[in-house]
Amino acid sequence: MPRAPKSPAAKEEPVRPATNVTLYDVAERARVSGMTVSRVINGNAHVSEKTREKVMKAIGELGYTVNVAARAARVGTLRVGLLYSNPSAAFLSAFLVGAMGQCNRSGAELILEHCEDLKTQRKAIERLIAMGADGILVPPPLCDSRSALKHLKEIGMPTVAVATAKPSPQASAVRIDDYDGARSMTKYLLSAGHKDIAFIKGDPEHTPAQLRYQAFIDTMREEGLPVPAERIAQGMFTYRSGLVAARELLSQKVRPTAIFASNDDMAAAAIAVAHGMHLQVPEDIAIAGFDDTPVAVTVWPELTTIHQPIGDMGRAAVEMIVDHVRERRAGHEVVPRHQLMPYTLEVRESTAPAEG
User: Fold this and answer.
1) Residues 6 or more apart from 276 whose CB is under 8 A from it?
2) Most buried of 105, 130, 155, 166 (most Cβ within 10 A)?
3) Is residue 54 predicted with pLDDT exceeding 80?
4) Which of 114, 148, 329, 105 lies closest to 160 in space, CA to CA?
């Protein structure tokens, strides 16, 4: 008896090896555009979380991997230069974590060059160019160097100044509102009952230091509170300068009830000086800082501070540089952009209400 012919089986779609999966396959699976997939892969912040999740799910399902080497072969290796001369190792460390992470997502290479002062910055820039830098990040304090920014503008180098309080029209910038942040901290200390507040200033050549100090003075005057000269000490954003400034403030016959330092390194130094003088923090002296670098949660007691999103600023700065380089490679004019990042007040154990 002849066999009945087999009914045609449902034809299954062959599974494509992950090595052959393209960006457009991911776009089709996620039902988004190829440009959107590219933005997610490159860590672009201008993508909704819902869309990002859809794309990442499609990438996982298809086993798609980014071929950084192939991409570099197509568009040329993209190198992001970092010109640094930062007295705060904590700031630089947090910034590098963000910058390196974004470089990895963008398929870019981060190259670093150190310069000691204004005399060496031009040679440092030339070394970065010789190493193939396509764009340069300039964190503080060089972000406020007019000569460096002018030189980079003259040679047509895409530049992003990081954490400058007064952005130059010559370069893109990523920053926070330092003036408003310092006002918030001063108001917090005043609300806690502190009226006799001392202040440790930062590097006078650094624009955030200038604005943080001005905000402190303005806020105190608005409350009708005098700020005697002996309540102001000069620092340079370094831990060592904070030690000197804190000793000056805490050795006075009548001590202030609180110290607001322009950055965390100097605030941490003030805590160390207080401990060395057998003063209790915050019972005898409240101490606050600015930046929320890793040192803020490694000192004891943990530091009340203004959280500057340094890692996020590093990521945003790299993203901006990468965009500028691609714009230039496409023959478009690079227009400087200024991005303002949010700050938050982080209240921890180093401050408490004033007694009495």
Assistant:
1) none
2) 105
3) yes
4) 148
Instruction: Quote the radius of gyration of the chain (alpha carbons, Å).
Output: 26
Query: Which of 62-76, 151-165, 226-240, 330-344 is predicted least confidently?
Result: 62-76
Query: Is the pLDDT at 302 greater than 80, yes or no?
Result: yes
Query: What residue type is assigned to position 213 of the chain?
Result: Y
Residue with tokens 């060089």: 142
Q: Report the distance separating Cα 78 and Cα 94, nearest Å.
A: 22
CA 309 – CA 165 distance, rounded (Å): 15
- Which amino acid, residue 178? D
CB contact set of 90 (below 8 Å; sequence gap of 6+): 264, 265, 291, 293, 294, 295
For the cut 60, the answer to whether the pLDDT of residue 44 exceeds it is no
DSSP one-letter string for 105-160: HHTEEEEEEE--SHHHHHHHHHHHHHTT-SEEEE-TTGGG-HHHHHHHHHTT--EE
Sheet containing strand 159-162, strands side by side: 108-114, 78-84, 135-138, 159-162, 172-175, 338-340
Separation CA 159–CA 55 (nearest Å): 31
Residue 218 has pLDDT above 60, yes or no: yes
Report the C-alpha gap between 126 and 180 in whole angstroms: 37
pTM of the model: 0.76
Catalogue all structural domains in the chain, each as residue range(s) with its CATH number: 18-66 (1.10.260.40), 76-176+309-341 (3.40.50.2300), 178-307 (3.40.50.2300)
Q: Is the model more confident about 77 or about 270?
A: 270
Residue 133: half-sphere exposure toward Cβ, Cα within 13 Å:
27
Write down the pLDDT at residue 125: 85
Q: Do β-strands 172-175 and 344-346 pair in parallel, antiparallel, or remain unpaired? A: unpaired
3-state secondary structure of 232: strand
CA distances from 343 to 54, 89, 177, 259 (A): 30, 20, 8, 20
Residue 92: pLDDT over 90:
no
